[in-house]
Amino acid sequence: MPLIVFKQQLSEDVVLMRLDAPLIARERRPGQFIILQLDDDYGERIPLTIADADPVAGTITILFQTVGGTTHRLAQYSVGDTIQSVLGPLGTPTHIERFGTVVCVGGGIGIAPLHPIVKGLREAGNRLIVILGARSKNLLVFENEMRALADELIVCTDDGSYGRKGLVTVPLKEICGGAPKPDLAFAIGPPVMMRACCEATRPFAVKTMVSLNAIMVDGTGMCGGCRVTVGGQTKFTCVDGPEFDGHLVDFDNLMQRLRAYKPHEEEAHHKCHLEMEAQKLAARQRAGAL
Questions:
Q1: Would you say 85 and 10 are in contact if contact means Cβ atoms under 8 Å apart?
Q2: What is the DSSP letter of 227?
Q3: Contact 18, 59 (CB under 8 A)
Q4: At residue 165, what are phi and psi to the nearest 5 degrees?
Q5: Given this model, what pLDDT does residue 238 score?
Q6: Using the 8-state DSSP alphabet, how is residue 12 labeled?
Q7: Which of 8, 10, 142, 246 has the fewest Cβ atoms nearer than 10 Å?
């Protein structure tokens, strides 16, 4: 059972954790992920990308946003707590070689899974242009880590509180329209952002890889829950992906499948908030009694 050795609250609902998982840290490659379970037997299993790993220290870094019941509960864990089950590394690693100039676009929490890919591309000798997008400055993650790896870093915020105001697709189009154009692009973030990035690169014929965040259960391709349509064919994100050629992905189908679970996430989100408020009230009452 992996031990939590570091925890940092990056924003109100975004948490970074470092787990003691030496075997995963040693074997993991950019683009791969873990499946985490807090309860034995019947607990929910959730996929989380490995944002970084230290084979020497034997640790992996995960970053998550509290959107459902499991992530809310995980956010309450502290340094020294153990996690019931962590399975990985899973998924097909990112294909990395010396492509030339690569533009990498990360949006929101998607910046975390982009980080090991950028690191791998840097080590392979590529020229890197990194575009980071967030709703506001306080929601921007991994900026310093990306700045240390990129030849050029561009930050965009929806509200203009930091960097350029606007969408990441604007500088992406500018870069693709330049001479010479990038040899490859990566885009990781919310599905609507990844689709927009693919449409931005399509007219320039810049191949664009995306990392899909389909619902997963077993992580081995048996349950079929993470199936997506790519190039007219059914693929399983957990074993065939999570990365695919974005110009071939049926994003409408992906987002429709993700919306099917939205009511359950919202119910769990509301329930967790009620439970946390009840716990806070009980703690205040105990403190008052003392």
A1: no
A2: E
A3: yes
A4: -85, 125
A5: 87
A6: T
A7: 8
Whole-number pLDDT of residue 262: 62
283 CB contacts (<8 Å, ≥6 apart)? none
Q: What is the token pair recorded at 151?
A: 């030849």
Where are the domains positioned within the chain?
Answer: 3-90, 101-211
Question: pTM for the complete prediction?
Answer: 0.86
> How far out from the chain centre does Cα 126 lie?
22
Question: What pLDDT score does 125 carry?
Answer: 97
Four-way CATH pick for 3-90: 2.60.40.10, 2.40.30.10, 3.40.605.10, 3.100.10.10: 2.40.30.10
Q: Which of 258, 252, 129 is nearest to 186 (CA)?
A: 129
Sheet of strand 164-165, all strands in order from the earlier edge strand to the far edge: 164-165, 152-157, 127-134, 101-107, 184-188, 208-211, 243-245
3-class SS at 183? coil
SS3 label, residue 29? coil
Residues 6+ apart with CB under 8 A from 232: none
> How big is the chain, counted in residues?
290
Please tell us whether the domain made up of 101-211 is placed in CATH 3.20.20.70.
Answer: no
- The DSSP secondary structure of 250-277, one letter per residue, reads -HHHHHHHHHTTHHHHHHHHHHHHHHHH
- Backbone CA torsion sign across 251, 257, 258, 263: positive
**Per-residue pLDDT, 273:** 53
The series of mean pLDDT values per 10 residues for the chain, 290 residues long, is: 93 92 96 88 83 96 89 93 92 95 96 95 97 94 95 96 95 95 96 96 97 79 84 92 95 84 56 56 62
Nearest to 181 by CA among 129, 219, 220, 229: 129
Rounded CA separation 281/200 (Å)? 49
